[in-house]
């Protein structure tokens, strides 16, 4: 019998059956029943929208048929209940079992545990319509389990079940059931008082359950105070949000009760801390009333035909940016970076990040869009302008194209005929574009002018220009007086202009993003319209949680102490992440950085580092190809000597990297290693690395230069430590 045939048979017997459709919610596929499913009657059932093989069919519990849901995957067993009479068994996609029984009049019991051990759940429902769960029919396929369906293991005897009385032994066991799973989140079932949230929208109920499970997991894993602090506050904020949304049916009292019931507790983290976290969440989110204009679809649901993406599936706003990008056939990550840049361009120059280390940090940012010529880099500017709803006049006032470091500085200045000098412009904010950043590299050899230091200083909000010039040529912009968003076009093989300044931190201060996007669909979506965005009210500083400040301080401490394991670029990366988190927060109307924006910013920065590494490899490969080509041309005149030498240089560079990497991960080893691992290799180590090369004296310096250029090794106070990259033919060291 098909699922649809069984459903029609059940409806005829007075048992409601609903169509459950797969829906993507915050990046995950959920199986969502229709609104009001728990109160539906058999006469109101409509199966016309059922799609075999895509949708599922489910019974609403408590209308004559209930089920004991045995979760064998979590070591649940039917043997932990007394023997009871059942009227059919369904095998679930996860390997569990559903035992069909007459309705007991009891509500749902989840999880179900007896003194003998954990069982699973009880799918029931009370006559008044409360306490109901869904029971999937055999033959159904759920979006959550695309590779398997529900199988009728023992045929259902619907009529026999409806005419039978509940098994008294089973009912008694259910009435006394409760407890917790031994190896998972702990719950206690106390009967009706656990049904305070019954009437909650099923979509909200599922999301709320996920948040409460985070609290339970704190207890299960035995996390320490800082982790408990972060988790409890984040969950409290989520629960307050659900309570403030009109569609959820979830009250402030419900939310507070659930929070206090599930919050982790130990000797140092108890009721006082729980109250503090809840009060902070209410203050943060706001306690004021319902928002009936909010709907489940608006808050959570997204089209199922999109690929999972932890970044763009995180919020409706980010999904909006992705659709806009794909509708105009440009890279979604690149468009997002441009949008974030435009958001920061709206921030007054006096607004900054707090002085956690050193002075206040400016919210200036640089974005390096990587792609070959014609990859759509120029189109991003126009699409981001349309998405933000900006007019052409705004472009003329703020947006500029520059061709040199001097041009960057001059963009913030105007000539004052009264003082006969360059002075700062009003509203000193600029979105400056460079189509191809390598074109600026030529300025590095002209009169000492360099673009990389200028970029590095500009994105940190430092002082720009020079004082030692005549009045008409003097260009000086005071630190913290300007807002700069720098948009750089970068071809992978020509990215050395920026990458070669890695020791000074230039590449780490930029957000690197690809101009291409493999996720652009063949069926182009419609233009979603501009974002309805407004800048929230801002203080002079964008604050962020203490645990993030601690992370920044610890990174600085590692750098200050030096030694092996210290990453000189870590501080730059964290500052870039804070700027991205700020932009994400402002884009979503939040005036401060929360854990959510910090985590999403981490995804952006991680992707940035990957793009950076791809550029390094492209530069290194180009260097090799150029040297080999030169060697081949030289070989006509010098019998291949240059090519041979070039290959030996590369082999020497690999040998040097192997020695440096080995010594950085091992203790002193006789004559082969005479220094501690964190001290770095000496010239003696390099000499020993090249001892088997016949022309070691001739290739030594070139081999070292190649290893440095490819970021295989790095100079640390005259010694050598492993760099950010490694030769392509090698594999990470197994520790």
What does this structure look like?
The C terminus is likely disordered. The protein is elongated. The protein has 21 helices and 24 strands. It is of the alpha+beta class and 735 residues long. It has a 6-stranded antiparallel β-sheet. Strands 1, 2, 3, 9 and 11 form a 5-stranded antiparallel β-sheet that branches. It has a 5-stranded parallel β-sheet with strand order 15-18-21-14-22, with helices on both faces. Strand 7 and strand 8 form a beta hairpin.
How are the secondary structure elements laid out?
Layout: H1 3-12, E1 17-25, E2 28-32, E3 56-60, E4 65-70, E5 89-91, E6 97-102, E7 109-114, E8 117-123, E9 134-136, E10 151-154, H2 158-163, H3 168-175, H4 202-221, H5 225-244, H6 252-262, H7 271-285, H8 296-299, E11 301-302, H9 316-327, H10 332-345, E12 352-353, E13 361-362, E14 365-370, H11 377-388, H12 392-398, E15 399-401, H13 405-410, E16 413-416, E17 421-424, E18 429-434, H14 451-459, E19 464-466, E20 475-477, E21 483-490, H15 496-499, E22 510-514, H16 546-561, H17 570-587, H18 595-638, H19 641-664, H20 683-689, H21 696-709, E23 713-716, E24 719-722
Helix pairs in contact: 4-5, 5-6, 5-7, 9-10, 10-11, 10-17, 16-17, 17-18, 18-19, 19-21
């Amino acid at each position: 019998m098909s699922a649809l045939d069984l459903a029609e048979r059940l409806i005829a017997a007075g048992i409601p059956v609903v169509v459950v459709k797969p829906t993507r919610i915050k990046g995950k596929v959920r199986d969502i029943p229709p609104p009001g499913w728990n109160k539906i009657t058999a006469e109101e059932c409509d199966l016309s929208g059922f799609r075999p093989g895509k949708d599922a069919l489910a019974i609403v519990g408590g209308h004559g048929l209930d089920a004991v849901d045995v979760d064998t995957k979590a070591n649940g067993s039917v043997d932990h209940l007394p023997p009871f009479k059942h009227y059919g068994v369904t095998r679930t996609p996860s390997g569990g079992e559903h035992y069909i029984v007459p309705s007991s009049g009891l509500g749902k019991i989840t999880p179900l545990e007896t003194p003998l051990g954990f069982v699973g759940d009880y799918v029931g429902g009370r006559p008044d319509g409360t306490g109901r769960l869904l029971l999937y029919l055999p033959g159904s396929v759920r979006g959550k389990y695309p590779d398997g369906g529900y199988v009728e293991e023992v045929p259902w005897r619907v009529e026999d079940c409806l005419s039978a009385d509940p098994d008294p032994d089973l009912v008694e066991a259910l009435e006394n059931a409760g407890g917790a799973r031994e190896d998972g989140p702990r719950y206690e079932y106390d009967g009706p008082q656990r049904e305070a949230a019954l009437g909650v929208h099923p979509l909200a109920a599922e999301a709320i359950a996920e948040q409460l499970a985070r609290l339970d997991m704190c207890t299960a894993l035995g996390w320490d105070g800082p982790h408990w602090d972060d988790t409890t506050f984040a969950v409290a904020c989520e629960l307050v949000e659900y309570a403030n949304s009109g569609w959820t049916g979830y009250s402030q009292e419900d939310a507070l009760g659930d929070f206090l019931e599930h919050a982790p507790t130990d000797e140092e983290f108890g009721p006082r801390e729980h109250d503090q976290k809840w009060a902070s969440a209410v203050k943060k989110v706001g306690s004021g009333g319902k928002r009936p204009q909010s709907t489940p679809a608006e808050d959570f649901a997204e089209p199922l035909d999109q690929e999972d993406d932890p970044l763009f599936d995180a919020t409706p706003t980010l999904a909006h940016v992705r659709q806009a990008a794909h509708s105009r056939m440009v890279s979604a990550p690149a468009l997002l970076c441009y949008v974030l840049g435009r958001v920061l361009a709206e921030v007054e120059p006096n607004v900054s990040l707090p002085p956690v280390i050193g002075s206040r940090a400016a919210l200036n940012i640089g974005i390096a869009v990587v792609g070959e010529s014609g990859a759509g880099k120029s189109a991003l500017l126009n699409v981001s302008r349309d998405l933000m709803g900006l007019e052409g006049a705004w472009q003329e006032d703020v947006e500029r194209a520059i061709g040199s470091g001097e041009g960057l500085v001059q963009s913030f200045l105007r000539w004052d005929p009264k003082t006969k000098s360059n002075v700062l412009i009003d509203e000193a904010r600029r979105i400056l574009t460079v189509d191809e950043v390598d074109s600026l590299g030529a300025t590095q050899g002209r009169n000492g002018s360099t673009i990389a230091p200028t970029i590095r200083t500009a994105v940190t909000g430092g002082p720009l220009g020079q004082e030692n010039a005549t009045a008409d040529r003097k260009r000086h912009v005071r630190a913290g007086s300007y807002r700069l968003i720098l948009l750089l076009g970068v071809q992978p093989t020509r990215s050395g202009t920026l990458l070669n300044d890695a020791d000074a931190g230039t590449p780490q201060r930029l957000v690197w993003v690809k101009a291409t996007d493999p996720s652009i669909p063949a069926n182009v979506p419609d233009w979603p319209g501009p974002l309805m965005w407004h800048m929230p009210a801002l203080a002079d500083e964008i604050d962020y949680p203490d645990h993030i400040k601690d992370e920044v301080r610890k990174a600085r401490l590692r750098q200050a102490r030096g030694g092996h394991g210290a990453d000189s670029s870590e501080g730059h990366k964290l500052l870039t992440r804070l700027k991205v988190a700020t932009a994400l927060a402002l884009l979503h109307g939040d005036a401060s950085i929360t854990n959510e924006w910090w985590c999403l910013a981490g995804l952006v920065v991680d992707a940035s580092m990957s793009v950076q590494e791809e550029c390094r490899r492209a530069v290194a490969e180009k260097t090799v190809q150029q040297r080999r080509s030169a060697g081949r041309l030289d070989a006509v005149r010098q019998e291949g000597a240059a090519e041979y030498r070039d290959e030996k240089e590369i082999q020497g560079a690999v040998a040097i990297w192997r020695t440096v990497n080995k010594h950085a991960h091992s203790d002193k080893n006789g004559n082969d290693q005479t220094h501690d691992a964190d001290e770095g290799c000496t010239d003696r180590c390099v000499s020993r690395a090249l001892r088997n090369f016949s022309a070691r004296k001739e290739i030594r310096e070139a081999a070292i230069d190649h290893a440095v250029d490819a970021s295989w090794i790095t100079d640390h106070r005259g010694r050598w430590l492993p760099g950010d990259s490694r030769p392509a033919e090698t594999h990470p060291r197994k520790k």
